[in-house]
Write a structure and sequence with these properties.
two-stranded antiparallel ribbon
Length: 57
């Protein structure tokens, strides 16, 4: 696919990642963290204040 490669140049092993692969990974991570953030915000949001309590007879 050309997204990831491994080469040996002058006795040095090199692992490379394509720019498209890295961009796709960054996008995936951003989406994942947005979901985690939304879930955290939902469970830590303050509860609405009760303005008046009433008793039912």
């Amino acid at each position: 696919m050309g997204s990831l490669g491994y080469e040996t140049i002058a006795g040095t092993n090199i692992l490379w990642l394509s720019q498209g692969f890295v961009q796709e990974y960054w996008t995936y991570q951003a989406e994942k963290f947005a979901i985690i953030d939304a879930a955290f915000q939902a469970i830590t949001a303050p509860l609405p204040a009760v303005s008046r309590l009433t008793a039912v007879p």
